[in-house]
Amino acid sequence: MNQTPFTLKGFIQDCKTLLPEYFASLQDSLETKEALKKAKKILLTFLKDYLRQNNNKFGRNQFNVEFINTYLTEKIPEEYKGFMPLSTLQTQKIIRNFVSFLTLHNVLYKNIDQKVVRMSELEERVEEESFNNQEEELMEGYYESFEDILYDKVEQWINSFYESKAGKTLSTRQKIYANEIILTFAEYMYYYCYQSPEDWDPVALEEVCLYHFPHRLIESHDFFAAISHVLMVFLRFLSSKGIIPNAQADELSMTLYSISDLIVEYGMEPENWGFLKSALMEARDSGIDMQNEKELNNFIQLKMLENNKKVISSQILKKEEVEVLSTGEIIKKLRRLGVEFQKEQFLKDVHRFYSASELVDKWEQQYHIKADDQELYFVWLAAVVLWERLAPNVINAESVERLILEGYDLLDELRTKEACDAWLKAWDYLKELIPSNIKEIDGIEGIIQLLYSTSDWSHDLAIYLHNAGLEDAEYYHIRIKYILEVLDRFPDSDDDYLFNMNRALAETYFLVGKEEKGEELFKKLIEYYPEHSWGYISLGDQYADIDSKRYDYEKAKSIYQLGLNKKALPKKDLSLRIKSLENEKKGLNVRKTLITRYRSSLSQEKLDKNGIQAKMEHIKNFLSYVIFTLRMINFEKILELLEPKDIRIFLGTWVIQHEYVSSETELIDYCKDIKAFLLYILSDDR
User: Fold this and answer.
1) Helix%, strand%, coil% for the chain, nearest 5
2) CA–CA separation, 462 vs 219, rounded Å?
């Protein structure tokens, strides 16, 4: 392979071409198929990281040795510890040798390979290599045996547990969660703490429950609340069968009891979440379709880009260093570097190129600039600054990118409306910059190179315009205008993009009170995409909200059912919507019964005109029977810990009459409903 001047695009393409040959060379050094599989994943992840962090003016034309060295010495030891069956040293070696492999094939210059940290230096960082080799062998055995042996054994225990007296004491909700809780616990104890059930100890248990569960599991509050009780009952079952000693079960149960509150607290606290969990939770909260793999992957990639904004921030600081120079000083330095800058020609060039980056490429070819990396980076920054000063009314790609970045920074500060304002300005710039013959959103990337995917960003703008509308309804109207412009400008975009934009448009017409228009658009969307379940779901949702004036149980259910009849996918989402709709209808009836009974009680005791405090006391008396029956005394304390915002099914008189609540866990669940009921009663005019 002949060596040519470095370009990021060419480098990635060469890597893709040579990867199969390098993978083949690894087969002799890696003993298991699993190890080879992990090695492939490591290399592909490395190349994706390199592309993401170096897709800028500097990185597109110069190989970033510093990135490689940081990756080898910092990122791998910190983030690849659990990348079994490969040790940290093996992982470093795979990437380091790949750099040498690229050098041998003339993809990289030899002087670059010489600047990359040597394996001998990496080995010195590992204090006890022999210990690591033993650990590696142990890990490999564990990795294979869990799937081959322990997994089936644990599943057999779980099946027997469900049929046992101990298992039957679990509540319905706990039974739903039990299989995943137990299986995941056993798996994490094995993978991360190297312990089989007979070896389980309190220290490892705490590590799994207070670190690995919160860090990795994307589950609800109820799931984390069930963990300690489910595991305690399961441990008693194991000891009763002689699988683990009674003393071990007691010690582990005591540990679970002591950390039960922390399990829930840590699981719900975002600062304890890993990057992937944080991204997925944010995706769910942002309305991303969790079943749409492309949409979800795009969102996660965007979060990864945001996670690496330190690189971008350092570039902004360097730009400020150029901005303090006068125009004359900048031009003088450009000329010293070989750029024969002439203002008249520059003012012509800004109308010929989409970006300062393209203009600098032209300078490099025209003037054969001989400069080091920092000097070349200055040339680009100088072009950006001079463009802003000498041709401020001529839009370029850097202006768009700056506004996009500014918007994401504002979102980090929870300034949603200001972020949308910055992005709308970027959108106006793009409309002016992009030729009218570009009819698909992804076609923009063939014209200008931005750090962010244009289709992902434009979809983000639609999402956050909705969020801004929650603060200021005017942004709903702005959202409609924006989406109509996007659909008109890029009608040939891919189906997923067009589907999501049209869905957002129809939804927004409902939000501004134009239900007929919204329903008309939803029906057209369903007609055009009959196989897509989220068309039916989004329309049905407009009539499924109990608190909305549009609430219509029969209409919502018929729309969801139509999706099932049309065999739209994913089918599961439609079925869950129908089940939720039915449960909420039951909950609405329970709420009406409870409110009627409460108002009657108020009238009898002549409290209906009294103040809030009197009503509060009466509510406590009204509900005290629940607490008394269950012999629970921490009612107020429990209420303080609960969030009412997602509650739909309210506590009904049947709970009291039939004593369905039989444990503190179930009481906490029902107290959520009580709290929501209290808030309803205490609202105005109740």
Assistant:
1) 75, 0, 25
2) 27
Tell me how far apart the alpha carbons of residues 532 and 544 are, in angstroms, rounded to a whole number.
19
How many domains does the structure of the chain reveal? 5
Quick check: 69 and 114 in contact, CB under 8 A?
no
CA–CA separation, 6 and 641 (whole Å) = 58
Report pTM. Answer: 0.48
d(CA 469, CA 404) in angstroms, rounded, equals 20
Please, what sign has the CA dihedral across residues 259, 260, 263, 269?
negative
Distance from chain centroid for Cα 282: 5
For 119-141, letters b (16+ CB in 10 Å) and e give: eeebeeebeeeeebeeebeebbe
Question: Which amino acid is present at 208?
Answer: V
Q: Domain containing 103 — which CATH number? A: 1.10.150
Phi and psi at 598, nearest 5°, equal: -65, -45
pLDDT at 648: 31
Q: Residues 469-515: pLDDT tens digits?
A: 999 999 999 999 999 999 999 999 999 999 999 999 999 999 999 99
Angle, vertex CA 232, rays to CA 230 and CA 233, nearest 5: 65
Examine residue 308 and state whether it is found in any structural domain, yes or no. no
Residue 150 within a domain:
yes
CATH of the domain at 459: 1.25.40.10
| Domain membership flag for residue 101 | yes
- What are the pLDDT digits (tens) for 180-202? 999 899 988 887 777 889 889 99
Tokens of 342: 């002439």
For residues 379 and 406, membership in a common domain is answered with: no
| Among 410, 409, 389, 388, CA closest to 399 | 388
Structure tokens at 463: 């999402």
Identify the pLDDT of residue 64: 81
Q: Do residues 363 and 426 both lie within one domain?
A: no
Judge if 269 and 329 occupy the same domain.
no
**Could you list the residue range(s) of the whole structural domain that residue 19 is in?**
8-117
Q: If you search the block for the tokens 């001079």, which residue do you land on?
A: 386
Instruction: Check whether residue 192 and residue 268 sit in a common domain.
Output: yes
- Write phi, then psi, for 144 (nearest 5 degrees): -75, -40
Same structural domain for residues 264 and 332?
no
- Size of the chain, expressed as the number of residues it contains: 686
Identify the H or E element spanning 278.
helix 275-285
Q: What is the dihedral of CA 277, 280, 281, 286, to 10 degrees?
A: 160
CB atoms within 10 A of CB 499: 20
DSSP bridge partners of 532: 569
Q: Please say which residue of 529, 564, 584 terminates a domain.
A: 529
Distance CA 595, CA 683 (A): 13
Cα distance between residue 266 and residue 227, in whole Å = 12
Location of structure tokens 């330190």: 310
Contact of 525 with 509, CB cutoff 8 Å: no
Helix (H, G, I), strand (E, B) or coil at 532: strand
Q: How many whole angstroms separate alpha carbon 102 and alpha carbon 220?
A: 46
Q: Which of 634, 669, 641, 636 is nearest to 655 (CA)?
A: 669
